[in-house]
Amino acid sequence: MDDSGEPVRLREKAYASFTEHLLARDFHPGQFVSQRQLVAMTGMPLGAIREVVPRLEAEGLVKTVPQRGIQIAHIDINLIREAFQFRVFMEKEAIALFCVSASDEMLAGLRREHEETLEKALKDGETPELELHAQAIDWSLHDTIIDSLGNGIISKAYRINAIKMRLINQERFRITGRVIPVMREHLAVIAAIETRNPQTAMDAIAEHINNARNLALKV
């Protein structure tokens, strides 16, 4: 059957459902689960689960352990270092091009949403709703920079790493209580992009990512 067929559609749905539950913390790092437990949790047929496990294993999200089952990836020092190094390599190159190609209107919109979020945090304090909004803005800025390349291979690889980054965030340094410094760091990155100088932008994004990495490694 070709790629438009039902088995492929079910595999994609199984993958999407698994990652959704993973990011919702329905699984815990290092936890062992069986294929039938995944069927029960995702609501997907056993055949789709069996077919998607090799993909999840190749992406480093799970590991199959003989006699024990499927183990959810551990959040360890090695994973943190590798995931952040991947981000630095990808985002420095992407932002160098983004700072030249992004329209003034796009940059103005990015600046506005960050300034409004910062202002609200300073004025009213952080609420769970504001933290969720700020987290979405955080991820969206980085996704926007990567997607501006128009390269599907890079975007897909980045999204896989982004799942690991979000797991690291949940375990190591949630945005809770950090909306103000995160928005300020992003505004510094946006200001660097606005210079239209690739090296300035690359330095800013590297500093931002390395700050997050150091925070994750300290915990």
TrEMBL record:
The keyword Ribonucleoprotein does not apply. It comes from the Bacteria. Gene3D superfamilies: GntR ligand-binding domain-like, Winged helix-like DNA-binding domain superfamily/Winged helix DNA-binding domain. Keywords: DNA-binding, Transcription, Transcription regulation. Residues 8-75 form the HTH gntR-type domain. It holds the Pfam family GntR. GO terms for molecular function: DNA binding; DNA-binding transcription factor activity. PROSITE patterns: HTH_GNTR. InterPro entries: GntR_C, TF_FadR/GntR_C, Tscrpt_reg_HTH_GntR, WH-like_DNA-bd_sf, WH_DNA-bd_sf. This is GntR family transcriptional regulator. It comes from Phyllobacterium myrsinacearum.
